[in-house]
Amino acid sequence: MSKLQVSVYRYNPESDDAPWMQDFEIDTQGRDLMVLNVLQMIKEQDSSLVYRASCREGVCGSDGMNMNGRNGLSCVTPLSQVVKNDRLVLRPLPGLPVIRDLIIDMSLFYKQYERIHPYLQNDERPPSTERLQSPEDRDKLDGLYECILCACCSTSCPSFWWNPDKFVGPAGLLQAYRFLADSRDTHTRERLAELDDPFSVFRCRGIMNCVNVCPKGLNPTRAIGKIREMLVSHTA
Amino acid sequence: MVSSIFNPGRNGVSDWLIQRVSAVVLGLYTLFLLAWFLFNPSPDYYAWAGLFGSFWMKAFTLLALLSIAAHAWVGLWTVATDYIKPAAVRNGFVMFIILALFVFVVWGVQVIWGV
């Protein structure tokens, strides 16, 4: 694997009537580069290509994209993991509007995130130091707090594609459960009351695309199951 | 919060429970019928009449029929809200489904209790 054929989704709403695919040939010199490195090499060939990237080590969550049909972070995805027959197809994350090339408009994604009140809510008087938690209660947040909001999961979810304005989506629901599970949060009842309609949580059909693509190895489907259990036990 | 008019439970939790409970009922009914066919490989009129003539079988079949209606109502309402975006078309489709299920239930009741 040295010459890599890369096909990149291009769309500039100011000059293009429709999106199109541009082909590039990249010489990897046999190295197993990250997909982001390939994008940087393409940018040297054609500086008009735009994409988001920042930390280049899977921490910031900026460079989520669709690589050979699979969502992931380009900076931590080695070519050996996605490339087949020396061919790589790069597209923006599916299901959200494209601003330009590989950059999507994440407003709806953030709107759903905002809806679940992603911050600690506690009506009790603050103690003089900090609110303490037992090690067991702290353990409940493992697998939840690590989410970097890259949107790989929500944009791989058909339920989010069909109802991005009503279904919170796996990323938002993972965070919803992160605060429902937090022993220091006292707004459990209010949080659940905002999620008991047929769309917000229950549009999840458990197909687990979110689990399949999460670059941090998290499990939103399990968190959604826990929210369902809480909803049933609090409502019944 | 999203309001919804045509789902049976009017709320995600009850819709979800309706679908799960009705699925269990339908599963049990299917298993029962399969077992019955195992013991009656080629049933004649008297075997059928004997089975469906008993009160508990009528009640069980009615329960299964109502479960099908509830299960299909939740399921098809969900499919409609996923795939049919124009509200007028979607509501028309769901009303047609509800009417069809109602007809099936009434017809089914007539068949079951007519034995």
TrEMBL record, chain A:
<keyword id="KW-0816">Tricarboxylic acid cycle</keyword>
<comment type="similarity">
    <text>Belongs to the succinate dehydrogenase/fumarate reductase iron-sulfur protein family.</text>
</comment>
<dbReference type="InterPro" id="IPR025192">
    <property type="entry name" value="Succ_DH/fum_Rdtase_N"/>
</dbReference>
<dbReference type="Pfam" id="PF13085">
    <property type="entry name" value="Fer2_3"/>
</dbReference>
<protein>
    <recommendedName>
        <fullName>succinate dehydrogenase</fullName>
        <ecNumber>1.3.5.1</ecNumber>
    </recommendedName>
</protein>
<feature type="domain" description="4Fe-4S ferredoxin-type">
    <location>
        <begin position="137"/>
        <end position="167"/>
    </location>
</feature>
<dbReference type="InterPro" id="IPR004489">
    <property type="entry name" value="Succ_DH/fum_Rdtase_Fe-S"/>
</dbReference>
<dbReference type="InterPro" id="IPR050573">
    <property type="entry name" value="SDH/FRD_Iron-Sulfur"/>
</dbReference>
<keyword id="KW-0004">4Fe-4S</keyword>
<keyword id="KW-0408">Iron</keyword>
<keyword id="KW-0560">Oxidoreductase</keyword>
<dbReference type="InterPro" id="IPR012675">
    <property type="entry name" value="Beta-grasp_dom_sf"/>
</dbReference>
<keyword id="KW-0411">Iron-sulfur</keyword>
<dbReference type="GO" id="GO:0008177">
    <property type="term" value="F:succinate dehydrogenase (quinone) activity"/>
</dbReference>
<dbReference type="InterPro" id="IPR017900">
    <property type="entry name" value="4Fe4S_Fe_S_CS"/>
</dbReference>
<dbReference type="InterPro" id="IPR036010">
    <property type="entry name" value="2Fe-2S_ferredoxin-like_sf"/>
</dbReference>
<dbReference type="Pfam" id="PF13534">
    <property type="entry name" value="Fer4_17"/>
</dbReference>
<dbReference type="InterPro" id="IPR017896">
    <property type="entry name" value="4Fe4S_Fe-S-bd"/>
</dbReference>
<keyword id="KW-0479">Metal-binding</keyword>
<dbReference type="InterPro" id="IPR009051">
    <property type="entry name" value="Helical_ferredxn"/>
</dbReference>
<keyword id="KW-0001">2Fe-2S</keyword>
<keyword id="KW-0003">3Fe-4S</keyword>
From TrEMBL, chain B:
<keyword id="KW-0813">Transport</keyword>
<keyword id="KW-0349">Heme</keyword>
<protein>
    <recommendedName>
        <fullName>Succinate dehydrogenase hydrophobic membrane anchor subunit</fullName>
    </recommendedName>
</protein>
<dbReference type="Pfam" id="PF01127">
    <property type="entry name" value="Sdh_cyt"/>
</dbReference>
<dbReference type="InterPro" id="IPR000701">
    <property type="entry name" value="SuccDH_FuR_B_TM-su"/>
</dbReference>
<keyword id="KW-0472">Membrane</keyword>
<keyword id="KW-0812">Transmembrane</keyword>
<feature type="transmembrane region" description="Helical">
    <location>
        <begin position="59"/>
        <end position="80"/>
    </location>
</feature>
<keyword id="KW-0997">Cell inner membrane</keyword>
<dbReference type="InterPro" id="IPR034804">
    <property type="entry name" value="SQR/QFR_C/D"/>
</dbReference>
<feature type="transmembrane region" description="Helical">
    <location>
        <begin position="21"/>
        <end position="39"/>
    </location>
</feature>
<keyword id="KW-0249">Electron transport</keyword>
<comment type="pathway">
    <text>Carbohydrate metabolism; tricarboxylic acid cycle.</text>
</comment>
<dbReference type="InterPro" id="IPR014312">
    <property type="entry name" value="Succ_DH_anchor"/>
</dbReference>
<keyword id="KW-0816">Tricarboxylic acid cycle</keyword>
<comment type="function">
    <text>Membrane-anchoring subunit of succinate dehydrogenase (SDH).</text>
</comment>
<keyword id="KW-0479">Metal-binding</keyword>
<keyword id="KW-1133">Transmembrane helix</keyword>
<keyword id="KW-1003">Cell membrane</keyword>
<keyword id="KW-0408">Iron</keyword>
<feature type="transmembrane region" description="Helical">
    <location>
        <begin position="92"/>
        <end position="113"/>
    </location>
</feature>
